[in-house]
Specification:
This protein has a six-stranded mixed β-sheet with strand order 2-1-5-6-10-9, with helices on both faces. A two-stranded antiparallel sheet has the order 3-4. Strands 7-8 form a two-stranded parallel ribbon. It starts with a strand and ends with a helix. Helix content is 45%, strand content 14%. A hairpin with a 5-residue loop joins strand 3 (44-46) and strand 4 (52-54). The protein folds into two domains: 2-187, 3-Layer(aba) Sandwich (Rossmann fold); 202-299, Arc Repressor Mutant, subunit A. By secondary structure, it is an alpha/beta fold. InterPro entries: Class_I_gatase-like (IPR029062), DJ-1/PfpI (IPR002818), Homeodomain-like_sf (IPR009057), HTH_AraC (IPR018060), INH-QAR (IPR052158).
């Protein structure tokens, strides 16, 4: 039985906690042998979303097979130099020294840094806190714009929902990709994302503009990215000429409509490959005739 202990700090984000907790709880339901525990400095922890949680104040015991995970809390770009209560930093360090795994979601990385666990290690956090983490812990090697980073028994992840990806990664390490895929299916999660994927996917990275016509075309491509979408059809949806659509789309997103669609296909194919599909099967599933175009896109500089 593997114990997964969540160390909760005041103002913890619900999804930072609930996402990984659901992964390990579901894994336990599937017979993978997990026991989930919760600990805090006080019996009541009020979350960032206002929900009060009642938890144990017993310290999480060091274990060579266990995992201690620190979810993030509402930081707003301002993280105190001391976020841990008395004894918590030593407990985290002792758990790692005993051979156990220590992990964090979002601003939880600052707790690991306070415990000295980021020194000399690669790590990450929410994109809005990466620069602060690097300044606060100069011996840490902060990796920007990735979902999660494992390094020597210490695993850090980006913000909020990336904790699910981190937890599925840890299940994969212990039990293999098939077990993680079973957990993901039970949770109705599309697929386990790879750690080096950017924190914002293709849809989010290219949606920061204010051009309604381009948003309408993006909606169509997002919904039907596997299909062949003639430029004339997309221009009709935007109610502009093909030439005008290409100009507007490129100015708003930095990509042509075709490159945007290819980016979506590539992103979805990478998800499938990460879940165990072959490149050929993934390519066909996202709309390519075969894997040749997929290989070219994977090799193309970002």
């Amino acid at each position: 039985m593997t114990t997964v202990g969540f160390l909760l700090l005041p103002g913890v984000h619900l999804l930072d906690l609930a996402g990984p907790a659901q992964v390990f709880s579901t894994a336990a339901d599937l017979g993978l042998g997990y026991a989930v525990r919760y600990s805090a400095a006080r019996e009541e922890v009020v979350t960032a979303q206002g929900l009060a949680l009642r938890v144990s104040t017993d310290a999480l015991a060091p274990s060579p097979d266990g995992l201690v995970l620190v979810p993030g809390w509402r930081a707003g770009g301002r993280v105190p130099y001391r976020v841990l209560a008395e004894g918590q930093a030593a407990a985290l360090a002792a758990h790692r020294a005993a051979g156990g795994t220590v992990a964090s979601v979002c601003s939880g990385a600052f707790a690991l840094g306070e415990a000295g666990l980021l020194d000399g290690r690669r790590c990450t956090t929410h994109h809005g806190l990466q620069d602060l983490l690097a300044r606060r812990f100069p011996r840490a090697r902060v990796v920007p714009d990735v979902l999660y980073v494992p390094d020597g028994g210490v695993v850090t992840s980006a913000g909020i929902a990336s904790g699910i990806d981190l937890a599925l990664h840890l299940v994969t390490v212990r039990h293999g990709p098939a077990a993680a895929a079973a957990v993901a299916r039970e949770m109705v999660v599309y697929a386990r994302r790879n750690g080096d994927e950017p924190q914002a996917g293709v849809m989010l990275r290219h949606r920061g503009h204010l051009v309604d016509a381009v948003h309408r075309v993006q909606d169509a491509i997002d919904a039907r990215f596997r299909e062949t979408l003639p430029l004339a059809e997309l221009a009709a949806r935007a109610r502009v000429s093909e030439r005008t659509l290409t100009r507007l789309f490129t100015a708003a997103t930095g990509l042509t409509p075709l490159r945007y669609q290819q980016g979506l296909r590539l992103e979805h194919a990478e998800h499938l490959i990460g879940a165990g599909e072959t490149a050929e099967a993934a390519a066909r599933a996202v709309g390519f005739r075969d894997a040749r175009m997929l290989r070219r896109l994977r090799a193309r500089p970002a």
